[in-house]
Design goal:
alpha+beta; single chain; 7 helices
């Protein structure tokens, strides 16, 4: 079994899409092993997005992620990382497939509803950051 981190970003929470987003993962037989609604502080976001420090969009990204509540989840299942990324759709909603979360609900790349780990290494690192698990 593989684990991955998923975050429903502030726009997803604000728009009342959390239930629909979660149900899409569950319909693909992914098990929620951790779920927490929270507000992210700058420290945890700096750790999470450390690879983007210094990029022109970094401050906007941090501001956006602090704008409101988020839902942090750990999902577990067969090929969870690839499955979640397929369910989410491409980062840019214009390119995202119809039927994916971003293809169905997102409008702009900067507010694209969900985050998901992109590799096993990222998943381990991100899960530790957000849950304290080793």
């Amino acid at each position: 079994m593989e684990r991955t981190l998923v975050i429903v970003k502030p726009d997803g929470v604000e728009r009342g899409l959390v239930g629909d987003i979660i149900s899409r993962y569950e319909r693909k037989n992914l098990k929620i092993t951790y779920c927490n609604m929270t507000r992210a502080d700058e420290g945890i976001l700096a750790k999470h997005y450390s690879e983007h420090v210094g990029k022109d969009f970094y401050n906007r990204l941090i501001d956006y992620m602090q704008r409101g509540d988020i839902v942090v989840m750990v999902l577990e299942g067969e090929n969870a990382i690839d499955a979640v990324r397929k369910i989410n759709g491409k980062t840019n909603p214009i390119e995202a497939e119809n039927g994916s979360i971003r293809g169905d609900y997102a409008f702009i790349k900067e507010e694209n509803l969900v985050h998901a780990s992109d590799s096993k290494e990222s998943a381990e690192r991100e899960i530790k950051i957000w849950t304290g698990e080793v």
